[in-house]
User: Fold this.
Amino acid sequence: MIKLIASDMDGTLVSSNHKISEADARAVKKAQEKGIEFIITTGRSYEDAVPQVHQAGIECNYLVMNGSELRNENGKIIQSLYLSEMLVRDIVAELENANLCVELYTTGGTFTPSDAERRKWAVAAKINQFHPKISVEEAYKSAGEHFLYREVTPIASLDEIFENDYFVGKIISFSHDTEKIAALRRTLPAIYPVNVTGSFAINLEITNPLADKGQAIKTYAEKKGIHLKEIMTIGDSYNDLGMLDERFGYTVAMGNAIEEVKEAAKYQTDTNDENGVGKAIERFVQID
Assistant:
């Protein structure tokens, strides 16, 4: 019997039109009505995750920044795993030396110490990721006007974060140079005590070594008295691999998932544009 459903957002619960479908939301709410807990597990910050979830009418807890924070349905921080100031400074310096744009998810918002040029190329890589028909070069031309560019606060120095007593939950970096990103995923954990993963081939997500989606779910379930066999997890990308531990009872890959996720999961559902989350819930949970 399933007692907990943990779902990723981007590429999973959120469709390519950046919304949670009515069918997926309906299945989630019906499962909740049966007493099954639903929790969001995402690489996003809480502030970035909550609008789409609320718009779909879903009330739930959140494991955000790949498990760096656990928030309740009202946004209160229940537990946290942040990065130390020294580690943040060292890693940001390394990423900037690699000519990458850097963003920091903090308790005070999302900031970037990178210059405008790097930020525009990073936004162009994001646009191309979501809209492959638009080339990176074409996306760059309007990147400075895009909401993805404007929603991150530029800072002159990391001092602006630490002097305000903000804590860093995740360091993220984007580049259309996927080979460079893949290499850093391998090398950074060998140098620093961090967990390094990503939502897409174009990005790095760097967190506390204990901030892993799978481990966060296990810790959460243990405190709730939920056995691992009573947990269903759903994901699509690199940062979801920890959620696909075979000890979980039901691990589900989206139809649009990367091959590594499909190989690791016990089951597969339809894509995020075909209500894959809702169909997985209907398959394994007896809902009307």
User: Anything to note?
Assistant: The chain has a mean pLDDT of 95. The longest strand covers residues 168-174. Residues 85-207 form a domain with the Hypothetical Protein, Haloacid Dehalogenase-like Hydrolase; Chain: A; domain 2 fold (CATH 3.30.1240.10). The chain is about 35% helix and 20% strand.
